[in-house]
Amino acid sequence: MIEIPTLPSARLVLRKPMEKDAIDQLELFRDPEVMRFHGEEPYQSLQEVKDEINAFVELAETEEGMIWMIILKETDQCIGDIGFFKWDKANFRCEIGFKLKRDCWGKGLMSEAVTTILDFLFNELNLNRVEGLVDPNNLPSQKLLRRLGFQMEGVLRDYEFEKGRFGDLQMNSLLKREWNK
């Protein structure tokens, strides 16, 4: 098992998931706008969120990735989650994903969280490539990744089956040499 480190930034603390996060995360997972591009229907129960938090912990236990809770320093409130998965150690790459409560959108918080994770992935785990697969209609996530230097490589047609249909995903990537410029 890999220990999930605590990663501080100016306004945030990224820390390992805990059961106490379930109440805050329920608000996040219940919001149809937040879940719109995440391939799942909004959650309805606290138990679903607790199961998801357990899955976050298992990701580190199986060394397939890590998920952090995004904690706002000012209030100590859990406002989202961020992490990496599909960790391919042999090829020095992974995929990232993130969610943020709607009332925190547009404040630069996710940019701060993603920057913190990218520093960790490139400089601590020594990865060479980080991928972000984004729904082609998810313009805010596309803009965030572009701002941080990700390049759009193309569209993966009918890449995922979600909510009863096949959907495209846009492949974006950032290389270590581009990040460390």
Summarize the structure.
The protein is an alpha+beta fold and 181 residues long.
Report what the structure shows:
InterPro entries: Acyl_CoA_acyltransferase, GNAT_dom, N-acetyltransferase. Residues 12-176 form the N-acetyltransferase domain. This is N-acetyltransferase domain-containing protein. This protein has 181 residues and is an alpha+beta fold. The chain has a domain at 7-128: 3-Layer(aba) Sandwich (Aminopeptidase), CATH 3.40.630. It has helices spanning 22-30, 32-35, 46-61, 109-124, 139-147, 176-179, and strands at residues 7-8, 12-15, 66-72, 77-88, 93-100, 129-134, 151-162, 165-175. Strands 1-2-3-4-5-6-8-7 form an eight-stranded mixed β-sheet, sandwiched between helices. A hairpin with a 4-residue loop joins strand 3 (66-72) and strand 4. Helix 1 (22-30) crosses helix 3. The radius of gyration is 16 Å and the shape is globular. The model has no long low-confidence stretch (mean pLDDT 93).
- The CATH homologous superfamily of the domain at 7-128 is named Gcn5-related N-acetyltransferase (GNAT)
Q: Which class best fits the helix and strand makeup? A: alpha+beta
Q: Per DSSP, what share of the residues sits in E-state strands of 2 or more residues?
A: 25-35%
What's the Cα radius of gyration?
16 Å
- The strand order across the widest sheet is 1-2-3-4-5-6-8-7
Write down the secondary-structure element order.
Answer: EEHHHEEEHEHEEH
CATH topology name of the domain at 7-128: Aminopeptidase
CATH architecture label of the domain at 7-128: 3-Layer(aba) Sandwich
Q: What is the β-strand count?
A: 8
Oligomer: single chain
